[in-house]
Amino acid sequence: MPHDAAPPRLLTQNRRLRAIGVHNWTLPAWAGRLPDGRTYSTCPSAGVCRQVCYARHGTYTWPVVRARHQANLALVLDDLTGWETRMIAELGHRRFAAGAWVRIHDAGDFFSDDYLTAWLRVCRARPAVTFYTYTKEIDRFRRLVEPDPPPNLRWVYSLGGTQDEAIDLVADRVADVFPDEAAITDAGWHSQSSSDLHAVQGPRLVGIPANRIPSAVNRMNRRRFSEWQAESGTGHLRTVPTDSAEREAA
Predict the structure, then answer these.
(1) Where are the chain's structural domains?
(2) What's the pLDDT tens digit per position in 163-199?
(3) Which whole number is the average pLDDT over 17-39?
(4) What distance in Å separates the CA atoms of residue 96 and residue 130, rounded to the nearest whole number?
(5) What pTM, to 2 d.p., does this model score?
(6) Which of 28, 144, 201, 215 keeps 20 to 30 A from 134, CA to CA?
(7) Which of 192, 211, 195 is nearest to 203 (CA)?
Protein backbone atom coordinates (compact mmCIF):
# COMPACT_ATOMS: atom_id res chain seq x y z
CA MET A 1 0.00 0.00 0.00
CA PRO A 2 1.53 3.37 -0.92
CA HIS A 3 2.35 5.65 1.96
CA ASP A 4 0.19 8.43 0.55
CA ALA A 5 -2.80 6.19 1.31
CA ALA A 6 -2.27 6.96 4.99
CA PRO A 7 -4.76 9.50 6.33
CA PRO A 8 -3.69 13.12 6.89
CA ARG A 9 -4.32 12.72 10.61
CA LEU A 10 -3.10 9.64 12.41
CA LEU A 11 -5.17 10.09 15.56
CA THR A 12 -8.96 9.97 15.61
CA GLN A 13 -11.79 9.93 18.13
CA ASN A 14 -14.56 7.36 18.19
CA ARG A 15 -17.87 8.34 19.77
CA ARG A 16 -17.14 6.91 23.20
CA LEU A 17 -13.64 8.36 23.52
CA ARG A 18 -14.66 11.75 22.11
CA ALA A 19 -17.13 12.06 24.97
CA ILE A 20 -14.25 11.99 27.49
CA GLY A 21 -11.79 13.99 25.41
CA VAL A 22 -9.51 11.10 24.42
CA HIS A 23 -7.85 10.67 21.03
CA ASN A 24 -6.99 7.22 19.79
CA TRP A 25 -4.74 5.31 17.41
CA THR A 26 -6.12 2.20 15.78
CA LEU A 27 -4.86 -0.81 13.85
CA PRO A 28 -6.91 -3.61 12.30
CA ALA A 29 -8.00 -6.11 14.93
CA TRP A 30 -6.27 -9.48 15.28
CA ALA A 31 -5.38 -10.91 11.85
CA GLY A 32 -6.16 -10.41 8.20
CA ARG A 33 -4.81 -9.53 4.78
CA LEU A 34 -3.83 -6.13 3.42
CA PRO A 35 -4.99 -5.08 -0.05
CA ASP A 36 -1.51 -5.83 -1.42
CA GLY A 37 -1.81 -9.46 -0.30
CA ARG A 38 0.35 -9.34 2.82
CA THR A 39 -1.05 -11.13 5.84
CA TYR A 40 -0.77 -9.67 9.32
CA SER A 41 -1.36 -10.44 12.97
CA THR A 42 -1.67 -7.33 15.11
CA CYS A 43 -2.66 -9.24 18.26
CA PRO A 44 -0.16 -12.11 18.52
CA SER A 45 -1.15 -12.99 22.10
CA ALA A 46 -4.90 -12.91 21.55
CA GLY A 47 -6.73 -15.85 23.08
CA VAL A 48 -10.46 -16.37 23.44
CA CYS A 49 -10.94 -12.63 23.01
CA ARG A 50 -10.51 -12.98 19.26
CA GLN A 51 -13.74 -14.99 19.07
CA VAL A 52 -15.85 -12.10 20.35
CA CYS A 53 -13.68 -9.05 19.63
CA TYR A 54 -15.79 -5.90 19.38
CA ALA A 55 -13.38 -4.55 16.76
CA ARG A 56 -14.38 -7.32 14.36
CA HIS A 57 -18.03 -6.28 14.36
CA GLY A 58 -20.20 -3.28 13.57
CA THR A 59 -18.63 -0.09 12.27
CA TYR A 60 -15.16 -1.64 12.35
CA THR A 61 -16.17 -3.82 9.39
CA TRP A 62 -17.37 -0.93 7.23
CA PRO A 63 -15.15 -0.69 4.11
CA VAL A 64 -14.06 2.91 4.75
CA VAL A 65 -13.19 2.14 8.38
CA ARG A 66 -11.37 -1.09 7.53
CA ALA A 67 -9.39 0.75 4.83
CA ARG A 68 -8.38 3.44 7.31
CA HIS A 69 -7.12 0.91 9.85
CA GLN A 70 -5.25 -1.05 7.21
CA ALA A 71 -3.62 2.15 5.93
CA ASN A 72 -2.41 2.81 9.48
CA LEU A 73 -0.87 -0.63 9.69
CA ALA A 74 0.73 -0.39 6.26
CA LEU A 75 2.40 2.87 7.25
CA VAL A 76 3.84 1.28 10.38
CA LEU A 77 5.04 -1.81 8.51
CA ASP A 78 6.54 0.05 5.56
CA ASP A 79 7.98 3.15 7.23
CA LEU A 80 8.09 2.91 11.02
CA THR A 81 10.55 5.82 11.26
CA GLY A 82 8.33 7.99 9.08
CA TRP A 83 5.25 7.02 11.12
CA GLU A 84 7.07 7.94 14.34
CA THR A 85 8.09 11.32 12.93
CA ARG A 86 4.54 12.04 11.82
CA MET A 87 3.06 10.96 15.15
CA ILE A 88 5.42 13.17 17.15
CA ALA A 89 4.69 16.12 14.85
CA GLU A 90 0.92 15.63 15.08
CA LEU A 91 1.06 15.47 18.87
CA GLY A 92 2.76 18.87 18.85
CA HIS A 93 -0.48 20.50 17.67
CA ARG A 94 -2.25 22.82 20.13
CA ARG A 95 -5.16 20.38 20.48
CA PHE A 96 -2.71 18.12 22.33
CA ALA A 97 -1.70 20.74 24.88
CA ALA A 98 -1.04 19.82 28.50
CA GLY A 99 -3.75 17.53 29.83
CA ALA A 100 -4.45 15.69 26.55
CA TRP A 101 -4.99 11.92 26.60
CA VAL A 102 -4.26 9.40 23.84
CA ARG A 103 -5.40 5.78 23.88
CA ILE A 104 -2.95 3.60 21.99
CA HIS A 105 -5.00 0.94 20.19
CA ASP A 106 -8.72 1.13 20.00
CA ALA A 107 -7.98 -2.15 18.21
CA GLY A 108 -4.77 -4.10 17.71
CA ASP A 109 -1.81 -4.50 20.05
CA PHE A 110 1.97 -4.10 20.23
CA PHE A 111 2.79 -6.78 17.68
CA SER A 112 6.59 -6.37 17.67
CA ASP A 113 9.45 -5.11 19.81
CA ASP A 114 10.33 -2.44 17.25
CA TYR A 115 6.78 -1.12 17.15
CA LEU A 116 6.49 -0.92 20.95
CA THR A 117 9.89 0.76 21.20
CA ALA A 118 8.80 3.37 18.66
CA TRP A 119 5.78 4.16 20.83
CA LEU A 120 8.02 4.56 23.86
CA ARG A 121 10.05 7.15 21.96
CA VAL A 122 6.83 8.95 20.98
CA CYS A 123 5.75 9.08 24.63
CA ARG A 124 9.06 10.52 25.74
CA ALA A 125 9.03 13.09 22.93
CA ARG A 126 5.63 14.45 24.03
CA PRO A 127 5.67 14.55 27.86
CA ALA A 128 2.67 16.90 28.03
CA VAL A 129 0.40 14.15 26.62
CA THR A 130 -0.67 11.17 28.72
CA PHE A 131 -0.84 7.87 26.84
CA TYR A 132 -2.65 4.74 27.94
CA THR A 133 -3.28 1.30 26.56
CA TYR A 134 -4.72 -2.14 27.22
CA THR A 135 -2.36 -4.93 26.19
CA LYS A 136 -2.07 -8.71 26.18
CA GLU A 137 1.64 -8.51 25.30
CA ILE A 138 2.76 -9.15 28.87
CA ASP A 139 6.23 -10.50 28.12
CA ARG A 140 7.00 -7.62 25.76
CA PHE A 141 6.00 -5.06 28.39
CA ARG A 142 7.94 -6.84 31.14
CA ARG A 143 11.10 -6.64 29.00
CA LEU A 144 10.77 -3.29 27.27
CA VAL A 145 8.54 -1.07 29.41
CA GLU A 146 8.56 -2.05 33.06
CA PRO A 147 12.31 -1.54 33.66
CA ASP A 148 12.11 2.15 32.66
CA PRO A 149 8.59 3.29 31.68
CA PRO A 150 7.94 6.76 30.29
CA PRO A 151 6.32 8.79 33.11
CA ASN A 152 3.38 9.67 30.86
CA LEU A 153 2.47 6.09 29.85
CA ARG A 154 -0.21 4.10 31.68
CA TRP A 155 -1.06 0.50 30.82
CA VAL A 156 -3.49 -2.23 31.80
CA TYR A 157 -2.80 -5.94 31.32
CA SER A 158 -5.86 -7.40 29.66
CA LEU A 159 -7.04 -10.92 30.46
CA GLY A 160 -8.29 -13.35 27.84
CA GLY A 161 -4.99 -13.92 26.06
CA THR A 162 -2.39 -16.64 25.80
CA GLN A 163 -0.15 -14.89 28.35
CA ASP A 164 -2.71 -14.69 31.17
CA GLU A 165 -0.56 -16.88 33.38
CA ALA A 166 2.14 -14.16 33.38
CA ILE A 167 -0.25 -11.65 34.98
CA ASP A 168 -0.05 -11.11 38.74
CA LEU A 169 -3.45 -10.07 40.08
CA VAL A 170 -1.89 -8.93 43.34
CA ALA A 171 0.58 -6.51 41.77
CA ASP A 172 -0.46 -5.64 38.19
CA ARG A 173 -3.16 -3.32 36.93
CA VAL A 174 -5.54 -5.74 35.22
CA ALA A 175 -8.71 -5.66 33.12
CA ASP A 176 -11.11 -8.54 32.59
CA VAL A 177 -14.26 -8.69 30.48
CA PHE A 178 -17.35 -9.76 32.43
CA PRO A 179 -20.79 -10.88 31.21
CA ASP A 180 -22.41 -7.73 32.62
CA GLU A 181 -22.21 -5.01 35.26
CA ALA A 182 -23.71 -7.22 37.96
CA ALA A 183 -20.94 -9.77 37.49
CA ILE A 184 -18.32 -7.02 37.90
CA THR A 185 -19.91 -5.89 41.15
CA ASP A 186 -20.26 -9.44 42.45
CA ALA A 187 -16.55 -10.06 41.85
CA GLY A 188 -15.55 -6.93 43.75
CA TRP A 189 -13.93 -5.37 40.67
CA HIS A 190 -14.53 -1.81 39.45
CA SER A 191 -16.30 -0.98 36.20
CA GLN A 192 -14.87 1.39 33.62
CA SER A 193 -18.25 1.80 31.92
CA SER A 194 -18.73 5.47 32.74
CA SER A 195 -15.26 6.42 31.47
CA ASP A 196 -12.52 4.43 29.79
CA LEU A 197 -10.02 6.46 31.82
CA HIS A 198 -11.12 4.59 34.95
CA ALA A 199 -8.96 1.76 33.62
CA VAL A 200 -5.84 3.78 34.46
CA GLN A 201 -7.09 6.29 37.00
CA GLY A 202 -9.24 4.16 39.27
CA PRO A 203 -8.76 1.00 41.36
CA ARG A 204 -6.31 -1.55 40.01
CA LEU A 205 -8.75 -4.35 39.09
CA VAL A 206 -10.88 -3.18 36.18
CA GLY A 207 -14.08 -4.81 34.94
CA ILE A 208 -15.38 -4.30 31.42
CA PRO A 209 -18.95 -5.36 30.64
CA ALA A 210 -19.17 -7.46 27.48
CA ASN A 211 -20.60 -5.93 24.34
CA ARG A 212 -24.15 -7.10 23.77
CA ILE A 213 -23.42 -8.67 20.40
CA PRO A 214 -25.72 -11.75 20.40
CA SER A 215 -23.10 -14.16 19.08
CA ALA A 216 -20.57 -12.92 21.63
CA VAL A 217 -23.05 -13.25 24.49
CA ASN A 218 -23.73 -16.85 23.49
CA ARG A 219 -20.06 -17.76 23.19
CA MET A 220 -19.11 -16.21 26.52
CA ASN A 221 -21.85 -18.24 28.23
CA ARG A 222 -21.73 -16.11 31.40
CA ARG A 223 -17.95 -16.56 31.73
CA ARG A 224 -15.33 -13.91 32.31
CA PHE A 225 -12.60 -13.80 29.67
CA SER A 226 -10.10 -15.11 32.23
CA GLU A 227 -12.33 -18.10 33.04
CA TRP A 228 -12.96 -18.84 29.39
CA GLN A 229 -9.24 -18.59 28.57
CA ALA A 230 -8.33 -20.97 31.42
CA GLU A 231 -10.87 -23.48 30.11
CA SER A 232 -9.11 -23.38 26.74
CA GLY A 233 -6.03 -24.95 28.33
CA THR A 234 -3.77 -21.89 28.42
CA GLY A 235 -3.64 -18.74 30.47
CA HIS A 236 -4.25 -20.04 34.01
CA LEU A 237 -3.88 -17.15 36.42
CA ARG A 238 -0.91 -17.20 38.75
CA THR A 239 -2.77 -15.63 41.67
CA VAL A 240 -6.47 -15.19 42.29
CA PRO A 241 -7.74 -12.77 44.97
CA THR A 242 -10.11 -14.49 47.37
CA ASP A 243 -11.82 -11.54 49.04
CA SER A 244 -12.35 -7.82 48.73
CA ALA A 245 -9.52 -6.91 51.08
CA GLU A 246 -7.00 -8.93 49.12
CA ARG A 247 -8.29 -7.54 45.84
CA GLU A 248 -7.47 -4.03 46.97
CA ALA A 249 -4.10 -4.88 48.53
CA ALA A 250 -1.76 -3.48 45.95
Answers:
(1) 3-247
(2) 999 999 999 999 999 999 999 999 999 999 999 999 9
(3) 94
(4) 10
(5) 0.89
(6) 215
(7) 192
